Amino acid sequence: MGKRQKKSHTICRRCGKHAYHVSHRYCAHCGFGRSSRIRQFNWQWKDVLGKGQRKI
Ligand SMILES: [Zn+2]
Questions:
Q1: How many domains does the chain divide into?
Q2: pTM reported for the whole predicted model
């Protein structure tokens, strides 16, 4: 694993995860740069809201 020097993702300034794509200029986790809203799906509500909070 010596040739892994290109970093495609860096730390997102909105969600803080290492998912912000440098050349595409959007975050793969929260969608920052692609949409003004935070990227969110129904199957992610457990992560977003915390355990035990589930609607539907
Ligand atoms: Zn993000």
A1: 1
A2: 0.57
Q: Please give the distance, rounded to the nearest whole angstrom, from the Cα atom of residue 17 to the centre of ligand 1.
A: 6
Which tens digits make up the pLDDT trace of 1-37? 688 888 899 999 988 999 999 999 988 888 888 776 6
Distance 20 CA to ligand 1 centre (A): 6
Type of residue numbered 25 = R
**Which residues, chain by chain, have CB under 5 Å from ion ligand 1?**
12, 14-15, 27, 29-30, 32
Residue 32: φ, ψ to 5°: -65, 130
Query: In terms of residues, how long is the chain?
Result: 56
Question: What CATH number is associated with residue 36?
Answer: 2.20.25.30
